[in-house]
Amino acid sequence: MSLNYSTIVSAIGPEVGDLLEGGVLILFGAGAPPELAEIAVTHEPQAVSPEAPKPGDKVTIGDLAITITAVGASAWNKMVEIGHVSLSFTGAASADRPGEISVEVVPAETVLAKLAPGARITFAAA
After folding, report:
1. Gap between the Cα atoms of 24 and 72, Å rounded
2. pTM to 2 decimals?
3. Which residues of the chain have pLDDT under 70?
4. What do the Gene Ontology cellular component annotations say (predicted)?
5. Cβ burial 56-75 (10 Å sphere, 16+ → b, else e)
6. What are phi and psi of 118, to 5 degrees?
7. Can you tell me the distance from the alpha carbon of 62 to that of 126, in angstroms, rounded to the nearest whole number?
8. Three-class DSSP category at 30
9. Phi, psi of 102 (to 5 degrees)
10. What is the pLDDT of residue 83?
Protein backbone atom coordinates (compact mmCIF):
# COMPACT_ATOMS: atom_id res chain seq x y z
CA MET A 1 0.00 0.00 0.00
CA SER A 2 1.42 3.36 -1.06
CA LEU A 3 0.54 6.12 1.40
CA ASN A 4 -0.19 9.58 -0.03
CA TYR A 5 -1.21 11.28 3.21
CA SER A 6 -1.72 10.48 6.87
CA THR A 7 -3.09 12.88 9.44
CA ILE A 8 -4.64 12.99 12.90
CA VAL A 9 -7.92 14.82 13.55
CA SER A 10 -7.46 17.62 16.06
CA ALA A 11 -10.97 19.16 16.04
CA ILE A 12 -14.36 18.92 14.37
CA GLY A 13 -16.07 22.22 13.63
CA PRO A 14 -19.65 22.67 14.86
CA GLU A 15 -21.00 22.88 11.29
CA VAL A 16 -19.28 19.72 9.95
CA GLY A 17 -22.40 17.58 10.49
CA ASP A 18 -24.58 19.98 8.50
CA LEU A 19 -22.15 19.99 5.58
CA LEU A 20 -21.91 16.20 5.69
CA GLU A 21 -25.69 16.02 5.37
CA GLY A 22 -25.16 17.88 2.09
CA GLY A 23 -22.48 15.41 1.00
CA VAL A 24 -19.35 17.48 1.70
CA LEU A 25 -16.50 17.05 4.19
CA ILE A 26 -13.87 19.78 4.39
CA LEU A 27 -10.41 19.07 5.79
CA PHE A 28 -8.08 21.89 6.81
CA GLY A 29 -4.63 21.71 8.38
CA ALA A 30 -3.90 23.15 11.81
CA GLY A 31 -4.01 26.92 11.84
CA ALA A 32 -7.21 27.23 9.80
CA PRO A 33 -8.83 30.65 10.15
CA PRO A 34 -11.67 30.55 12.72
CA GLU A 35 -14.41 30.94 10.10
CA LEU A 36 -13.05 27.88 8.23
CA ALA A 37 -12.46 25.87 11.40
CA GLU A 38 -16.21 26.09 12.10
CA ILE A 39 -17.03 24.15 8.91
CA ALA A 40 -13.98 21.89 8.76
CA VAL A 41 -12.23 18.95 10.32
CA THR A 42 -8.89 20.39 11.39
CA HIS A 43 -5.95 18.03 11.48
CA GLU A 44 -2.22 17.56 12.09
CA PRO A 45 -0.45 15.97 9.08
CA GLN A 46 1.87 13.07 9.92
CA ALA A 47 3.03 11.97 6.44
CA VAL A 48 2.63 13.82 3.14
CA SER A 49 3.53 12.69 -0.39
CA PRO A 50 3.49 14.96 -3.44
CA GLU A 51 1.97 12.07 -5.40
CA ALA A 52 -1.79 12.52 -5.65
CA PRO A 53 -4.20 9.65 -5.10
CA LYS A 54 -6.10 8.35 -8.13
CA PRO A 55 -9.62 7.07 -8.74
CA GLY A 56 -9.90 3.65 -7.13
CA ASP A 57 -7.58 4.60 -4.25
CA LYS A 58 -8.93 4.89 -0.70
CA VAL A 59 -9.55 7.54 1.92
CA THR A 60 -9.84 6.04 5.38
CA ILE A 61 -11.38 7.70 8.40
CA GLY A 62 -10.58 5.46 11.33
CA ASP A 63 -11.57 2.00 10.07
CA LEU A 64 -13.97 3.32 7.40
CA ALA A 65 -12.51 2.89 3.87
CA ILE A 66 -14.00 5.10 1.15
CA THR A 67 -13.20 4.77 -2.57
CA ILE A 68 -11.96 7.84 -4.44
CA THR A 69 -13.83 8.37 -7.74
CA ALA A 70 -12.18 11.60 -9.04
CA VAL A 71 -9.47 14.09 -8.09
CA GLY A 72 -9.78 17.77 -9.05
CA ALA A 73 -6.88 19.46 -10.85
CA SER A 74 -5.67 21.50 -7.86
CA ALA A 75 -7.01 19.37 -5.00
CA TRP A 76 -3.78 17.61 -4.12
CA ASN A 77 -1.61 20.75 -4.33
CA LYS A 78 -3.78 22.41 -1.68
CA MET A 79 -3.70 19.28 0.45
CA VAL A 80 0.09 19.11 0.35
CA GLU A 81 0.54 22.86 0.93
CA ILE A 82 -2.04 23.64 3.64
CA GLY A 83 -3.88 20.40 4.41
CA HIS A 84 -7.04 21.65 2.70
CA VAL A 85 -9.40 19.61 0.54
CA SER A 86 -13.13 19.15 0.09
CA LEU A 87 -14.39 15.58 -0.14
CA SER A 88 -17.59 15.32 -2.14
CA PHE A 89 -19.62 12.18 -1.43
CA THR A 90 -21.27 12.03 -4.87
CA GLY A 91 -19.50 9.09 -6.49
CA ALA A 92 -18.93 11.34 -9.54
CA ALA A 93 -16.42 10.26 -12.18
CA SER A 94 -15.13 13.84 -12.45
CA ALA A 95 -14.69 16.52 -9.80
CA ASP A 96 -17.09 19.47 -10.06
CA ARG A 97 -14.47 21.87 -8.67
CA PRO A 98 -10.67 21.86 -9.07
CA GLY A 99 -10.06 21.69 -5.29
CA GLU A 100 -12.36 18.73 -4.72
CA ILE A 101 -11.87 14.99 -4.39
CA SER A 102 -14.99 13.01 -5.25
CA VAL A 103 -15.60 9.81 -3.33
CA GLU A 104 -18.26 7.11 -3.25
CA VAL A 105 -21.57 7.87 -1.58
CA VAL A 106 -21.47 7.13 2.16
CA PRO A 107 -24.25 8.13 4.59
CA ALA A 108 -23.39 11.26 6.58
CA GLU A 109 -24.04 9.53 9.91
CA THR A 110 -21.57 6.76 9.02
CA VAL A 111 -18.81 9.29 8.34
CA LEU A 112 -19.66 11.46 11.33
CA ALA A 113 -19.51 8.45 13.65
CA LYS A 114 -15.83 7.95 12.68
CA LEU A 115 -14.79 11.58 13.16
CA ALA A 116 -13.32 12.37 16.56
CA PRO A 117 -10.19 14.07 17.84
CA GLY A 118 -7.37 11.55 17.59
CA ALA A 119 -8.88 9.66 14.63
CA ARG A 120 -6.50 8.95 11.75
CA ILE A 121 -7.35 9.93 8.17
CA THR A 122 -5.30 8.50 5.32
CA PHE A 123 -5.21 8.69 1.54
CA ALA A 124 -3.55 5.60 0.03
CA ALA A 125 -3.35 3.42 -3.06
CA ALA A 126 -5.92 0.64 -3.08
Report:
1. 14
2. 0.95
3. 1
4. cytoplasm
5. ebbbbbbebebebbbbbeeb
6. 95, -15
7. 16
8. coil
9. -85, 140
10. 95
Which among 55, 58, 41 is positioned nearest to 119, based on CA atoms? 41
According to the model, what pLDDT value does residue 126 have?
85
Contact 9, 119 (CB under 8 A): yes
Positive or negative, the CA dihedral 1, 23, 70, 10 is negative
3-124 classified as CATH 1.10.8.50 = no
Give the Cα separation of 1 and 43 in Å (integer): 22
List the chain domain ranges: 3-124
| Euclidean distance between CA atoms 77 and 74, whole angstroms | 5
DSSP 80: H
DSSP 8-state symbol, 20: H
CA distance 19 to 5: 23
As a whole number of angstroms, the distance between CA 89 and CA 112 comes to: 13
